[in-house]
Structure formats: C-alpha cells, structure tokens
Write a structure and sequence with these properties.
Number of helices: 0
Strand order of the largest sheet: 5-6-7
Structural class: mainly beta
Radius of gyration: 28 Å
Distance between the termini: 74 Å
Length: 75
Amino acid sequence: MSKVEHYEVSDDKLVRKKQTCPKCGDGVFLAEHSNRVSCGKCGYTEFKKKEKPKKEKKVEEAPVPETGAPSLFDE
C-alpha cells in the first residue's frame, strides 16, 4: 500500500485515514488486523473488543389447554 492511500484531502485539508502510533508519533501508521491494530516499528498493540452476539429473549406462550379441560382464562 503506498503512502498516498493513507491520506485524503477534505475541505482543502490533509486527513489521515489510518490510526497513527502513539509511541512513534505522526507518520507511523498502525496495521489493522482482524482482532488488533499494531505498529510494525515498535511493536505497540491494541486489541479490539469482541462484540458478544445479543441473545434474543424468547417469549414463552401459555400452554393451550386440551379440549374439554376447564380453562382459568375463560369467562
């Protein structure tokens, strides 16, 4: 990846697309991996948080009484 692809021009200003290394400073970008971002120069690493899949709450329906059985809900 060339250095030109790390920047973009927005409103006549140069904007960095990738995160820079906090230890090495500007000009050293962090490599993006599936579970972390890391610096190839000094080895600085930040791990990404795992997103837990949200469990859907299952709503249980009241059992249907068999025919002929008295029901508490009938009026």
